Amino acid sequence: MLDMPGRGKARFITFEGGEGVGKSTQARRLVDNLAKVSIGAVRTREPGGTPRAEAIRSFILQGRPESWGAGAEAVLFAAARLDHVKQLVAPSLESGKWVVSDRFHDSTRAYQGLTGGVEEKLIAALEVLALDGRKPDLTFVLDMDPALAFERVRERAPEEALVATGDRFEKEELDWHQRLREAFLAIARDNPERCVVIPANQGAEALEQEIWDTITRRYPETVAGPGA
After folding, report:
1. Is 225 annotated to bind ligand?
2. Residues that bind ATP, according to the entry (predicted)?
3. Res 153 pLDDT > 50
4. Per-residue confidence (pLDDT) for residue 102, from 0 to 100
5. How far is it, in rounded angstroms, from Cα 14 to Cα 199?
6. How confident is the model at residue 32 (pLDDT cuts 50, 70, 90)?
7. Are strands 3-4 and 8-9 parallel, antiparallel or unpaired?
8. What is the pLDDT of residues 166-205, one digit of tens each?
């Protein structure tokens, strides 16, 4: 991996959490803030990020493999992740660019593993295959009461739009989303050196600032703040 002059090595940052907590918005804002201090970064998402991975994303979120079970879904996500890592994540980091991803392997652990009941042995084996030694340097877990997050989702995409797109993860029952929230918090507790839990029920600007403050504390070579 190439080092950026005066900036240390390129970092791999991920955003995790349930639906409607603001992951996509904050990933975009972080890339913008990195650009302000002349740090090149690539924004991506999972599943997705590459043409093959995006095709798998569409297949999964339309609910087509739903009857196959959570184990088969975990395998599909791993296939998408393997392509994502090899074609986008690893090359970007090796070229000196930071990578900021809206979801990564923790989502499979939370959705298909801790919430979906897939055995840890399978989840761990798929991670060895798909990650190819690449784990995030820092993961922001955006935490919010699912009931409040649901209101955000409804504002973003009315119920009829959800039916039309077929995104079944957003249509799960509220208690399922509460279990999902607890799964992400459990992952954060098990990985305190990597995961930072941030309350997502604050304003977008306040959330953005808290994320940036964490970045500058963790990696002071990025300077004290945007535009500094």
Report:
1. no
2. 17-24
3. yes
4. 98
5. 16
6. very high
7. antiparallel
8. 454 555 688 888 999 999 999 999 999 999 999 999 999 9
In angstroms, the first-to-last Cα distance of the chain is: 26
Per domain, the residue ranges of the chain are 3-222
pTM: 0.87
pLDDT of residue 68: 82
Which distant-in-sequence residues (6+ apart) come within 8 Å of 34 by Cβ?
40, 41, 98, 100, 222
Residue of 178, 181, 114 whose CA lies nearest to 124: 114
153 is in an annotated binding site: no
Distance between CA 47 and CA 37 in Å, rounded?
Answer: 29
DSSP bridge partners of 43: 100
Any binding-site annotation on 24? yes
CATH 3.40.30.10 fits 3-222, yes or no: no
The answer to whether 92 is annotated as binding is no
Per-residue pLDDT of 95-131, as tens digits, reads: 999 999 999 999 999 999 999 999 999 999 999 999 9
Residue 203 main-chain phi, psi, to 5 deg: -60, 155
- Structure tokens, 91: 């090359």
Tell me if 182 is assigned to a ligand binding site: no
